[in-house]
Fold Pyrroline-5-carboxylate reductase.
Amino acid sequence: MTKTLGKFAGRMLLVGCGNMAGAMLDRWLAAGLDPARVAVVDPVAEPREGTAHFTTLADWQAADQSADWIMLGMKPQQLGDVAGELAAVAGGAVHLLSILAGVSLADLAVRFPEARAQVRILPNLAARIGAGVSAVTSTGDADSAAIEALLKPLGEIVALPDDGMMDLVTAFTGSGPAFVFRLIEAYAAAGERLGLSGDDALKLATATFGGATALLARSGEKPGALVAQVASKGGTTQAGLDILDEGGELVALMTNVLRAARDRGRELADIARGDD
Ligand SMILES: NC(=O)C1=CN([C@@H]2O[C@H](COP(=O)(O)OP(=O)(O)OC[C@H]3O[C@@H](n4cnc5c(N)ncnc54)[C@H](O)[C@@H]3O)[C@@H](O)[C@H]2O)C=CC1
Ligand SMILES: O=C(O)[C@@H]1CCC=N1
């Protein structure tokens, strides 16, 4: 891993540094971001060594801090609590970054009209180990080289032309790890139900999902082609696939899961806007 964030220059303020923003910050610091360039405002988060830490935005301002990059890392429901105070300092050369589910670029432009650019980033928790994927889209005069340098240590980057698909992507890749963890949990629980010990079942399930996804990513083959390499005609795998594929129920279930998560993003945007 490179020990520099390359073209990413300037000072960063994180407003909210919980599970997701904290994972991003830890990865950035591990990738060489100078902690002296970072300030965090969060009433409960654990301060990171070398970063300036404040409980409230007023404390940050009282300490005469400045930022070139401000990232919203609290919950969408908390946008109204911070937007007024933040808008006053998010002008001129400031990039306003948001990882908030649901909140659109248009909403950000209304809240932070003076920012140089509004940038919507949808990361996921695997950013903590550099194996995440970040979808990104922006409006205004965004420095895309700097944004790419910032997101690169977190994993893959997918640039979207606008945020029309961002609520679906939030469900797909943002919530996605939780859905995958739940699938692994169910796989392990089924193994346990059929006789494995709990520890063995989780260890075997984790290795099976990890190995299969690594092979899929590295081989360049389609999932169906790899299924065919596992399933012998009339063999054990086919007996299981006959259940899994029955009536297209698995795809129907996943469609319902993603639809519910996507639509909740729209509701969160309404709450953040104060329309609920
Ligand atoms: N957790 C995840 O995997 C992902 C989360 N997101 C987005 O990231 C954001 C944060 O989610 P999580 O990290 O899961 O939540 P979290 O609850 O772990 O973190 C939120 C943090 O915001 C802080 N906070 C609350 N009010 C504040 C205020 N007025 N000023 C400053 N900080 C304040 C809290 O103390 C907390 O540490 C959300 O908007 C969510 O939509 C996006 C993609 C993935
Ligand atoms: O559950 C949530 O609302 C956030 C957004 C994507 C992942 N976590």
Remarks:
- The pocket of NAI (ligand 1) is lined by residues 15-21, 41-45, 73-76, 78, 81-82, 99-101, 122-125, 174 (CB under 6 Å).
- The longest strand covers residues 132-140.
- The chain has two domains: 12-161, 176-244.
